Every structure is written in structure tokens, then in C-alpha cells.
Amino acid sequence: MSKVYIGGKLYDKADAKISVFDHGLLYGDGVFEGIRVYSGKVFRLPEHIDRLYDSARAIHLEIPLSREQMAEAVVSTVRANGKKDGYIRLVVTRGAGTLGLDPRKTSDPQVIIIVDDIALYPQELYDNGLEIVTAATIRNHPNAVNPRIKSLNYLNNILAKIEGIRAGCLEALMLNHKGEVAECTGDNVFVVKHGILRTPPTDAGILEGVTRNAVLELARAAGIPAQEMTLTRHDVYTADECFLTGTAAEVIPVVKCDGRPIGNGKPGPVTRQLRERFQQLVRQ
Ligand code: PMP
């Protein structure tokens, strides 16, 4: 039976409960992280904790633990679950309050840590590549809810995901308010053109993915030129290769976008190389 951490205590899954008055539930008022455990080691925990605290700061939420205490809580919950390979969901809600938006009328932000398995895309898609479509729903305007905040309000992404699913695709490409490529609903996007790796910059209205940053580092270390630059759908359609990155997805090739085959319609060599290097990195 898996053990869930809530506010410093471990509960059996069936007993892991929080209040229906929690503003995380009522308004999506809170922040979260999705983190991997590989061979018993939490992947890039400091980076995930930094992003969690940045997200919290941006929504004016004070997390009732220091970063060190949070890291310790994550590691000890993983240990209590005896998981060598798995997925951690770290959630901080605003806490229970009165009905009404006012965050001052809440108390006790809830820190929740779930350790579980992760449902990957089927292996076939890693071998042969994924097809995506562009969603009509644009990514949140940075002056509304900044996509750099990993907030509990994921409706923007869910609406785009529904469009993808309705079009028979497991991921959907999201543009920003300027019509530029931002990211997918739960993954960052990369293209390769003439041997150069490109991904939208953080100010394109994206979540700055931990996997994205790891892949940029791996590319630079491997001598693959890498640029963070504005991309349009044209750049995706005319790319030699395209792939997505995310904690759950890792590195997955994209071979079709809006019905257009990308490159020769098969996962490309740069994608394969970076996927392999990423596998090596996480197994280190
Ligand atoms: N973009 C969005 C919208 C996400 O939700 C995620 C994480 N699931 C990512 C990108 C990838 O980020 P990371 O590599 O840190 O998982």
C-alpha cells in the first residue's frame, strides 16, 4: 500500500484526504511539481524544488517548510514507499478557507507528496514517433496566469489536450498570444534544422522544463549547437526533426504536426542521440 505524505505525516493511500474547503480544490489555488525517481535517486530535486518555491512566490503562497525540509520530506517519502523507479507528485495548496477567493481567509497550506508509478506513452511511440496537432486554445497570456508558474489550475492545458484527443493525438501544440510556438500541453517542444537544435525561450510563455534544461545541457556538451529562439508553426512544419521533453515523457520524437510529416516522417538522428544521452544521464 503506498504511503502519502500530508503535512508531515504519512497516510495509507485510502486515508490520504484533505478538506473540501481547500482552495486548491475550490479554485486551483496552489502549485505543484512532477518529479522522477530513477534507480532510487530523485532526478534534479534541487531544480524542481527551486521551481516549486518560485511558483509559490509568484502566487504569494508561503510554503510552511524550508527548501531543505522539503527536499528531506520528498526523499523520506520516496524511501517510505520503497520505490526505486517512479514518479513523485509534490503539491502545495493554499489550504482550507471560507467560500470566496480571498486567500487571507485560508489557513494551513497543505504539503502533499505522492509517490507512484508513471503511465508513459506506449513504447511504440518512442520508436516511431508521435503525431501532434495545433490546438486552437492558446497558452495562457503571461500577464494572466504566467505559464512559468506550475499552478494547480491546468485547465488551459486540459482544454488543449481535449482538442488533441478529439483529433486522435496524445499531445497538442500550443501557441502563445502572439501566435508563436509555446509548448505542448505537458511537454516542451524542440526542433532540429540543419543540425541546429531550437526551442522557444522562457519568455515565449512556457513552463521552463527541467527536462528541457537537461536536454539543452546535453546538446551543448555533445557539440550540438542549441538555441533558445522564437519559433512559428512554419519552423515546426519545415523542421528536419521535432521532439518533446518532459518529466513523464522524457524525450519523445514527433513525426507529424497538423497532418504534415516532419523531415522524412521518422524519428531523426539528433533526437535519437539526445534520447540516448538522456537515458544515460538519468541512469548515472
Ligand atoms: N510544459 C508543461 C505545461 C508541463 O506541464 C510540463 C511538465 N509536465 C513541462 C512543460 C515539462 O517540464 P518538466 O521537464 O520539468 O517536467
Quick rundown:
With 284 residues, the chain is an alpha+beta fold. It contains eight helices and 15 strands.
What does this 3D model show about the protein?
- It is a single chain.
- This protein has 284 residues and is of the alpha+beta class.
- The protein has 2 domains: 3-116, D-amino Acid Aminotransferase, Chain A, domain 1 (2-Layer Sandwich); 123-283, Alpha-Beta Barrel (D-amino Acid Aminotransferase, Chain A, domain 2), CATH 3.20.10.10.
- It has helices spanning 23-27, 45-58, 67-81, 123-128, 155-166, 210-221, 233-237, 269-283; strands spanning 3-6, 9-12, 30-38, 41-42, 86-93, 111-116, 130-134, 171-175, 181-184, 188-193, 196-199, 226-228, 241-246, 250-257, 260-261.
- The strands form 2 sheets. Strands 7, 8, 9, 10, 11, 12, 13, 14 and 15 form a 9-stranded mixed sheet that branches. A 6-stranded antiparallel sheet has the order 2-1-6-5-3-4.
- The protein starts with a strand and ends with a helix.
- The structure holds 4'-deoxy-4'-aminopyridoxal-5'-phosphate.
